[in-house]
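Check these lines:
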Amino acid sequence: METVYIETTIPSAYFERRSDSKTVARREWTREWWDNYRLHYDLVTGASVMDELSQGNHPDKSKKLTLIGELEILEVSKAIADIVQVYLNHFVMPSNPATDAIHLALASSHKADILLTWNCEHLANANKAGHIRRVNALLGLHVPMIITPLELLGKSANE
């Protein structure tokens, strides 16, 4: 079974309340994948995801935490922190906040097959894929596929 690292935007999208068409589509694709296909994968997430979702006052906070509460939680160790620093030094991810770098480091070091995200600016971005591959190769790290639930469903945005 393939391993999927669940990034913060996935539980956030699952409970998204905004009603613009783009957001509604992402919510529906996320729910379709989570409700119908997640059992075909081993799911993991990071302690940083739990931390991000625990911060602040936002709608459905407890539901988001409950949604991923049963997943294996990968901790940020010294080795992960060192990988994050390399990512920041090589401008793979922005330093403020460094959470995207943490997600990538956890998924890469734990050899997740897929990093599932709606973060298309810093993670699921074809323009960053080559840079991520090169830096992970320098570090001797696995490179997960970094994709959205839509891609994992095998659909296009027009469906």
In short: The helical segments are 9-14, 21-36, 47-54, 61-68, 78-89, 99-109, 126-139, 149-153. The domain at 3-153 is CATH 3.40.50.1010 (Rossmann fold). The beta strands are 3-6, 42-46, 72-74, 114-116, 145-147.
